[in-house]
Amino acid sequence: MLTHLFRLLGSLKIFLPITTLALLVLIPVNVSGGTLLDLRKEVVFSDIDKLSISNVSPGSNRFFIHLLMAYVFTFWVCFMLYKEYSNVAFMRLHFLASQKRCADHFTVIVRNIPRVSSHSTSETVDEFFRRNHPDHYLGHQPVYNANRYAKLVKQKERLQNWLDYYELKFERHPERRPTRRTGCLGFCGREVDQIDYYRARISELERRMTSERQKILNDPKAVMPVSFVTFDSRWGAAVCAQTQQSKNPTQWLTDWAPEPRDVYWQNLAIPFFSLSIRRFLMSVAVFALVFFYMIPIAFVQSLANLEGLEKVAPFLKPVIEAHVVKSFLQGFLPGLALKIFLYILPTVLLIMSKVEGYVSLSSLERRTASKYYYFMLVNVFLGSIIAGTAFEQLYSFLHQPPTQIPRTIGVAIPMKATFFMTYVMVDGWAGIANEILRVKALVIYHLKNMFIVKTERDRDRAMDPGSIGLGENLPSLQLYFLLGLVYAVVTPLLLPFIIVFFAFAFLVYRHQLQIINVYNQEYESAAAFWPQVHSRIIASLLISHVTLFGLMSTKEAAYSTPLLIFLPLLTIWFHKYCKSRFEPAFRKYPLEEAMAKDTMEHASEPNLNLESFLANAYLHPIFRLFEEAGKEEETVEVRIDKAEKQQHRHEEDEAHARSSSQYREEETHFRSTHETHYHHEESHVSRSTQYHEGIHVRSDTDSPSPPHFVYHYDIQQ
Q1: Fewest CB atoms within 10 A around its CB: which of 21, 119, 175, 549?
Q2: Mind telling me which residue stretches traverse the membrane in this protein (predicted)?
Q3: Which DSSP state fits 109?
Q4: Is 282 within 8 Å of 126 (Cβ atoms)?
């Protein structure tokens, strides 16, 4: 699952040569331009801007050097991308070939199963696959709509947690039982015993759960038109998963089943016909989210250059000129505020992805990563450039001819490199340091421990380290890749900041993943994210080409600018070639590999029983809960039975000891007096023998026994 992350961190191999060339070639060319000194009355710039392409005079032949470097950088990136794509595809196939036997290798998920009035869904699936896949079909596992039952289970867990808390509290302070009021927020209403109150609520909830459970098992409508179909070979599963099953292309839709721990069961209950509507509505919602986030981000970016703001609002000059305020607002606040805005975003985007109806956790993370990348592209990158340029150059726009505005924009775009340097330091460098310290996880744990944790179960949940969070981390890494490629030719001084970030990121994640293994792995994707990563890097290349083309067109570089047209065309052709050459390895499983794996497995394990291996692999969680509940009841019964047996054995030994002692006394008395009647001796001898053999036989001559002892033996009979 994490191969693509290491490969992305391996972008050091891409940026080190680019940084070396840019610093040695482009910075001397830019510094010697000197055009910003001639425009110091028209635009606001800093010393860093003198190292950018903005410092090259319009119409200069120096732009041919920038053009040449753009081609060199593009070819180098494409060459490294080809090597990485080839290596990752090979590693994926090698991993699948050497992977241990897993249930998802033999299982296909079937969706939009048609309803047949004369058959149940299970019978329809069984009949269809016996007819169309007679040689390899093994069985199927129907999917039940148990979402309501799952809510009841969560509610019971919450109530049980409160009950455990108050029972522990009562054990610590037995002099007083905990009480509460049943009214609003516990401030009004009838006062009740907490322990009895939660026991009664749990008992009532268990009755509701039993009713809901029976409803699920007995109601045919609870069976969803989705099923996990298993085959007796990988080859048979591959044929089914990668072919069309019906002449109606909207029915009997098959795909590889996610591994059992990767299944997001709640979304399996969503009707298939509603998925398109859900995804359209979520696309509109994402667009609206991106749009409304532009408002606070635009304001934050206006603080990046306070000199430009002073020209628009002179009355703020006394406050802005204060050294502490100016340093904080201009150097630290923009990046920090932007990071706070982005902090809550991944959770919102994940909820949107769940609403879209994807049925695996890996798909949810991929969709969340895509949404997050688009958001960061529009708001962090484009939004920062547009908003920052508008505020910084507002004074110039109001005091120059309209024909000069495109030129002003072209000069001002690379000036945002200063902000992005700050952003990389605040978000990138500090973020990597925070990752290795796990400050966020530590703070969240202590907050939960302070306000939420009541029992040891709560503490275990609070200490869960969580997963690596690819939906949030991948877009951030891709944003830094975008910044590096866009500013490689425009402002090369940004590249060392990118290099430092990737170097620290590689060391930190290597430490976290390979050395101490700090994250929980929720699923294994076998590098399924890599095609998405490759596409994002290609998009970054295209954006860098368009940005450079627009910038040079304002620089009156009439001879060099048209030559840039070939760069995006070559990049698109390269992307299509890689897509056709390598992406099938990430979308389909070769039949050749499947057959080879099956043949090898049959040779090594000729008596393998796949039916038992796959029987409960995709069992719905509701049935696992049934089994666990049954095991708990069985465990309680076994404990009670063991306790009864131990009590029975103890009482039996005591009775045997008493009867033996009594027999010895009677025998001694018989030998000493010789006056004891024969029937008296016989009765006691027989009683001793009966207790010794563990059998209780009632007779009129028996003396009365303790009720529990007699009751126990009656049960034993």
Answers
A1: 175
A2: 12-31, 63-82, 280-299, 332-351, 372-391, 479-509, 557-578
A3: E
A4: no
Would you list the DSSP string of 270-291? S-GGGHHHHHHHHHHHHHHHHH
What Å distances lie between residue 709 and 645, 653, 701, CA to CA?
A: 12, 12, 18
- Single-letter amino acid, residue 286: V
CA distance 646 to 644: 5
- Per-residue pLDDT, averaged over 42-47, amounts to 65
pTM: 0.77
Q: Residue 343: pLDDT band by 50, 70, 90 thresholds?
A: confident
Residues 181 and 191: beta-carbon distance below 8 Å: yes
Q: Compute CA 214 distance to the chain's CA centroid, rounded to the nearest angstrom.
A: 33
Phi, psi values for residue 298, rounded to 5°: -60, -40
Closest by CA to 359, choosing from 259, 474, 250, 469, is 259
Phi/psi region, residue 527 (left: phi>0; alpha: psi -120 to 50; beta: rest), is left
Handedness of CA 358, 363, 368, 374 (dihedral sign): negative
Q: What would the mean pLDDT of 418-423 be, rounded to a whole number?
A: 88
CA atoms within 13 A on the CB side of 214: 5
How far apart CA 170 and CA 172 sit, in angstroms, is 5
**pLDDT tens for each residue of 133-179:** 999 999 999 898 888 888 898 899 889 888 888 888 888 888 888 88
Q: Which residue has the higher pLDDT, 64 or 185?
A: 64
Query: What are the tokens at 548?
Result: 């450079």
Of residues 62 and 406, more confidence is placed in 62
For tokens 């709640």, name the residue.
266
Query: By the 8 A CB rule, do 432 and 450 touch?
Result: no
Euclidean distance between CA atoms 309 and 321, whole angstroms: 12
535-591, pLDDT tens digit by residue? 999 999 999 998 888 888 877 776 777 888 899 999 999 999 999 999 999 999 999
Q: What is the pLDDT of residues 279-292, one digit of tens each?
A: 999 999 998 888 77
- The CA-atom distances, in angstroms, between 431 and each of 338, 425, 473, 512 are 13, 9, 10, 14
100: which DSSP letter? P
Residue with tokens 């008992």: 203
Collapsing DSSP states into helix, strand and coil, what is residue 39? coil
Instruction: List the chain domain ranges.
Output: 3-102+270-588, 103-258, 636-716
Tokens coding 650: 């103890």
Predicted pLDDT at 322: 72
Q: Cβ(541)–Cβ(44) under 8 Å? A: no
Contact (Cβ atoms closer than 8 angstroms) between residue 146 and residue 247: no
Neighbours of 289 (CB within 10 A): 17
Strand partners, 364: none
pLDDT digits (tens, 9 = 90+) for 460-486: 888 888 888 888 888 989 999 999 999
- Extract the tokens encoding 16: 């080190």
**Mean of the per-residue pLDDT values of the chain:** 79
SS3 253: strand
Q: Which of 414, 455, 423, 406 is nearest to 334 (CA)?
A: 423
Residue showing tokens 């329809």: 124
CA 490 from centre of chain: 36
Place of tokens 């009670």: 640
Structure tokens at 457: 């179960």
User: 34 in the Ramachandran plot: left (φ > 0), alpha (ψ -120 to 50) or beta?
Assistant: left
**Contact between residue 237 and residue 614 where contact means Cβ atoms under 8 Å apart:** no
